[in-house]
């Protein structure tokens, strides 16, 4: 299972500028909400991807915001690490103050300014010898690692620091496949009858 499969909803960006949404549990009307917001549905290695092609950050910000508003009515287990939607008035920042890079199940962080380094210190990230690189706190499982990055990224964004999260996914074709489900847990299996709803 990849980091993309942990929350109910994962919103991210590929290196080539696509915005994508992955839905990991059944959410009523999710397909309609995302397609009405302008996302294109595509089947990919056992999962449905919802994609926005590369465009302006303002457009992606608005479209993802519309979709997120609807999805949050059904779940708060939503992770948004999408750099393509981080829009603020003015020109985009080519060299962000803080950059997270996921690779091989962990994350490396670089901080370009004193404010970025201070924020990472407050979130428990551990500085490396060169003074600008950080690693996550020890002992984090994948969910807690994802939570630590999300908390630091959100905190930085709310304080006006420029941030980019690189998920290590070059293009939509490189998004990992859906996790394999065991036959015993497959939806609709005869061994797991659906619960009946009581009508009132």
Short description:
It contains four helices and ten strands; from the N terminus they run ββαββαβββαββαβ.
Domain count = 2
| Percentage of residues in DSSP E strands | 15-25%
As laid out across the biggest beta sheet, the strand order is 3-4-2-1-5
Tell me the number of helical segments per DSSP (H or I, 4 or more residues long).
4
Description:
There is one protein chain. The protein is of the alpha+beta class and 200 residues long. It has a five-stranded mixed β-sheet, with helices on both faces. Strands 8-9-7-6-10 form a five-stranded mixed β-sheet, covered by helices on one side. The chain contains four helices and ten strands. The protein folds into two domains: 1-88, Aspartate Aminotransferase, domain 1, CATH 3.90.1150; 93-174, Alpha-Beta Plaits, CATH 3.30.70. The longest helix is centred in the last third of the chain and has 17 residues, at 142-158. Helices cover 24% and strands 22% of the residues. Helix 1 (30-36) packs antiparallel against helix 2 (57-71). It is globular. A hairpin with a 5-residue loop joins strand 8 (126-127) and strand 9 (133-135).
List the helices and strands and how they pair.
Blueprint: E1 9-13, E2 19-23, H1 30-36, E3 40-44, E4 47-52, H2 57-71, E5 78-80, E6 98-103, E7 106-111, H3 114-122, E8 126-127, E9 133-135, H4 142-158, E10 163-166
Parallel strand pairs: 1-5, 6-10
Antiparallel strand pairs: 1-2, 2-4, 3-4, 6-7, 7-9, 8-9
Helix pairs in contact: 1-2
What are the defining features of this structure?
about 200 residues; Alpha-Beta Plaits; Aspartate Aminotransferase, domain 1; globular; about 25% helix; single chain; 4 helices; 5-stranded mixed sheet; disordered C terminus; alpha+beta
């Amino acid at each position: 299972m990849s980091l993309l499969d942990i929350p109910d909803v994962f919103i991210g960006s590929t290196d080539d500028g696509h915005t994508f949404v992955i839905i990991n549990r059944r959410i009523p009307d999710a397909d309609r909400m995302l397609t009405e917001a302008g996302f294109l549905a595509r089947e990919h290695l056992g999962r449905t991807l919802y994609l926005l092609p590369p465009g302006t950050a303002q457009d992606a910000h608005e479209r993802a915001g519309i979709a997120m508003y609807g999805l949050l009515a059904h779940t708060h287990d939503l992770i948004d690490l999408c750099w393509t939607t981080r829009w603020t008035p003015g020109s985009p920042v080519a060299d962000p103050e803080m950059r997270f890079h996921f690779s091989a199940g962990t994350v490396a962080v670089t901080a370009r300014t004193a404010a970025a380094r201070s924020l990472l210190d407050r979130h428990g990230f551990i500085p490396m010898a060169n003074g600008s690189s950080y690693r996550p706190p020890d002992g984090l499982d994948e969910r807690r690692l994802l939570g630590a990055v999300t908390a630091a990224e959100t905190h930085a964004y709310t304080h006006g620091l420029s941030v980019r999260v690189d998920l290590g996914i070059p293009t939509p074709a490189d998004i990992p496949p859906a996790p394999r489900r065991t036959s015993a847990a497959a939806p609709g299996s005869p061994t797991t009858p659906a619960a009946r709803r009581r009508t009132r």
